[in-house]
Amino acid sequence: MRAIPLSYVMRNLWVRRVTTVLTAGGMSLVVFVFATVLMMSEGIKETMVATGQPDNVIVLRKGSGTEINSAILRTQASSLEALPGIATDSEGHRLLARETVVLNNLPKRDSEDTANVTMRGTTQIGLGIRPQVKLVQGRMFRPGTSEIIVGQAVAKGFANISLGSTLMMAGREWTIVGIFDAERSGFDSEIWADSDTVTQAFRRSVYSDIIFKLNTIEAFPAVAKAIADDPQLQLDVKLERRFYADQSEGMTRFITLLGLSLSVIFSIGAIVGAMITMFAAVASRIGEIGTLRALGFRKEAVLLAFLGEALGLALVGGLVGLAGASAMQSVNISTLNMATFSELAFRFKLTWVVSIETMAFALLMGFLGGFVPAWRAGQLSIIECLRQA
Amino acid sequence: MFLFKLLLKNAFRHKLRTLLTMVGLIVAISAFGLLRTIVDAWYAGVEGTSSTRLITRSAISLGYPLPVYYADRIKKIDGVTGVTWLNWFGGVYIDNRNFFARMAVDANSYFPLFPEFQISKEEQAAFMADRQGVILGRKTAQRFGWKVGDTIPLSGTIYPGNWTFNIRGIYTVKDARFDETLMLLHWSLIDESVKKRLGSLAANQVGLFMVGIKDPSKASVISQEIDTLFRNSVAETRTETEKAFQLGVVSMSKAILMAIRAVSFVVILIIMAVMANTMTMTARERLAEYATLKALGFSPGFVVKLLFGESMLIALIGGVVGIGMTFPLAKGFLLQTNNVFKVFEISQETMAFQAVAALIVGLIAAMWPAWKMSRIDIVQGLRHVA
Amino acid sequence: MTDQAAAREPVIRIEHLSKTYTRGGQPIPVLMDINLNVDRAEFVSLMGPSGSGKSTLLNLIAGIDHPTSGRILINGVDIATLGESSLADWRAANVGFIFQFYNLMPVLTAYENVELPLLLTNLSRKQRKAHVEACLAMVGLTERMDHYPNELSGGQQQRVAIARALVTDPTLIVADEPTGDLDRATGEEVLKLMDELHRDLGKTIVMVTHDPKAASRASRMIHLEKGVLVDDPGPGAH
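Output (structure tokens, whole complex):
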């Protein structure tokens, strides 16, 4: 079957520029929302996944779900330290850290609001087994002191954060001696201090979590079993990556649900717009349709030509919307993570998959809007078309 | 009247196009309403507050506990009518999707401070008599089909272990903005479990104090008095009105809320583009008619009125139906989010905004075509074969 | 059949052709029992008052309408029996159209408009170019080939349409009021052109017109009235 030339399709879009712009414009807005939501999901996922080494294990009290709710006794911590399968460094130190995690309500930089910031009391080893965390300014805090280091997102988002300044928390002053970059992981939104100092300052007698590095990742099942078999250790054992992924699940799901249902609703508006435009296009060119069919082009060719026009609109709308969404990549966003009740900073991440899904969505809208008018275009008899010209 | 009939007939000359435009309007207006309702719901906690209650929490952060003996000292402050406290229990009912708020309260002092809870005297007495008893909000009871006498098994998160609670009463509320989904259990029960597990030093801790005051205008003064009382102590406090507290919680999700607000305007822009397209096409088709009208002596203003009138009429009909459609849409959304919102009402303000949005869309959509049409050259227009 | 005999076979052979429309449940007969033959290289004009059925007859011959009963044999093929897709293919190969309002695609240049029918063939781009340029030269519009229809006068547009009608070297050319939208002088030019094509290229042309001057250009004038032939001089009458 011979097709009607592409130049015919494309030039018709150009000739009715105003309509094309308005229709494609409406579509681009929907595409923008759709792409941005997907990018938000990707950004959160990236943050969560990056927050975790494949061979680190995190241990919490059974059923607590988050570090904040968890409590591990000293005796339990000692039992864990004795487990086989934990990696050691060149000097024979076990790569295991006892951590205390608390929330601090701090004032934000650009507004009068405050937000909860996660404060993690950890050790040099705790820093070491998280190699994605690197100090970019200053130095590591000294053990036993009230020195702290802060993540990049905290430095950017909260007030009075700079090297040398102090924060008032739990009734004492903490001095910022370093700023770290955690490669866009959740740690960027945290403040780190000495584990013992935090435990004391916040009057804890228990730890929030124990984190350690495995000798080899294959050792995990054995370690998990050893802990499960010990009745004194009512603990949840998870690979660090899995733990953080689970934590973001609720938030990701909510954002994705909200965003996608909005996109679907909006797309109805855009599809309606495309339909109106295409019906008008068919109506105004009914004489041309008759002529083309008289010349010998089949009605399927007519269908394809008008469908092509609708897809052309969608393509333009899709590309513009995607370009707009892409600009969101430079925007920093942070919000409350319902699971941990603390602030989490992430970015809008544009991946190839998101781009493809976005364009597919745009083209789908064009197809849905253009199909009925395009099909109708081919249905009329040639005589009718020529008569109505 | 003639004008109105003319507008109506004109609008439906091209039935399909007008209907499609209306569908687009209906969808856009109802989506706009839904989004506003979502933002409102987020702030609902702020609205259902009382000006005669203050919240005292740890100055460190919300998760941090305060000693229970603070209550006696707060009570002694001038202007304070009563003090109660609560701890967030958390816990999981089967799995995370069945979320509803569960709080451990000091029953004796809690209910006097919260007259919003409507509960029968018998049920309240039954609750007081049973330490494992709970009072449940009507909405949650309906959601799970629970009645007085049923048991609720929970697996603890903050307070570990497997818990069983007995429903001793179901409360309702008069004001729709007040939370009707809560489960209240006895603070003494969980405090005892903490004592058993971690020793008496770890016990006697509360999450929040609620302080009743006689005179709302004294809120700020009394808040400062309370905080001064505990400055430089083991646990410093931060006291604010109930409203300010709720606002603080909401503001932590500010970014998302702002995004939702922005998006709600995007949808109006989308439909504006669609309607402008429709009106432009309509105007183009009727070029010859408008030229004829002008030739017959109708003023350019008349033509403009025709276009605007038609556009506004479509917008009006679409807007009204759109407002109506918001209700089932909101219901569906609420169900999808597993009732995470305690209050989900479409406010009058939202409906007013929807109406205004529809009218603005109708207005702006017709602007450019109306301007163009009022300026057409009669001769050109008559010659035009659409 | 010998070549000579074949040359004498009518290009168009219409037998007992009838066409009835149904409107509101009522049958409206438009053509009744038409019998007509047209020989190769004839220039025939169909005339008659409004409602006589002349346009319907033209549409049936052109294969853009189906008869209610009867046979239409064009070069031996009964097009009344062809299905829609086959009919489309048949038209592409056998019919050239000239319309009253030219019916050019406004978004295509003169060149591209003429090229359109060739896109339905297997010719390569180079081959198509040769044909298009030849036809445009024939109608004298070589310098205008890159112009769009809205940049051409009525007469020029019709000449482009004529070039388009020729470009596939079709069996027959149908023209529906070709001078209807043109002033006298321009109409004359167009008719002169059609005349030349008829004589020089031996094209078979069937034309509907109500303009007697245009009709006189034809070699044979057929009159219709109320759906029947009232005057047909027969082939070779001129």
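The helical segments of chain C are 3-8, 54-62, 84-94, 110-115, 125-138, 154-166, 184-201, 212-217.
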